[in-house]
Amino acid sequence: MSVHASKIRLLMELRRQGITDTKVLSALERIPREDFVSETFHDQAYENIALPIGYNQTLSQPYIVALMTEALKVSDRMKVLEVGTGSGYQALVLAKICRRLYTIERHKPLLDQAELRFKKFGQTNIVSKAGDGTKGWKEQAPFDRIMVTAAAADVPPDLADQLAIGGIMVAPIGEDTSGQWLIRVTRTETGFDVEELVEVRFVPLIPGLPE
Ligand code: SAH
Fold first, then answer.
1. How many domains does the chain have?
2. Whose CA is nearest to atom 13 of ligand 1?
């Protein structure tokens, strides 16, 4: 099947799975997912599956990327933080629909590759750095939206602190690779509202930097 045909098939499948936000669907349509994985996986780029990106990490399946982005309710006036840049694919999806996207990755070589992709696609509203994303990005806080793309046992307190009042965070929460849930946290004047969305499987959010 041609890239075009497999992409159309994937978009139809996402619609069937309940993704309705046209900003999200059109971002997925415009970004060539094959450019975010090694050549070995090019022919699977438009399958609805997660793909390896090196360093034991994975690019999430398109359905999860779409669901998380839709659940975050992003607009073009918003400042958004992503934790776990990985390949840079989710970052690019977010950057297409927000005002400015900040993204943090603990593996410097993954970040370097992601930054080359941002440049290649001419996406100039992304600010990225290597570091421990559990600490957030204090100098740039507060954020209207925060997306965490690796799973922790609980929401890191620094990230909750850096969420604006009225802001939304989407994050996978759970101890290990079984029994994680995607949650949506909304910060109110007085505290945080938490909703459980779907059961998921993410790589762990690891505090600190690699040796
Ligand atoms: N959003 C990515 C998915 C990456 S998988 C994409 O679209 O490709 C999760 C990523 O989170 C991995 O690259 C992992 O290295 C990173 N990560 C894990 N713990 C982290 C931490 N404390 N700070 C920053 N990044 C972290």
1. 1
2. 86
The answer to whether the pTM exceeds 0.90 is yes
In a domain, 19, yes or no: no
| 206 within some domain | no
Query: Does residue 152 lie within any of the structural domains?
Result: yes
Q: Are 170 and 147 in contact (CB under 8 A)?
A: yes
Which residue out of 57, 111, 155, 201 has the highest number of ligand 1 atoms within 8 Å of its CB and is therefore the one to mutate?
Answer: 57
* Residue pLDDT, tens place only, 111-149: 999 999 999 999 999 999 999 999 999 999 999 999 999
Instruction: Give the residue numbers marked as catalytic.
Output: 60
Using CA atoms, how far residue 192 sits from 82, 125, 187, 188, 195, in Å, is 19, 29, 5, 6, 10
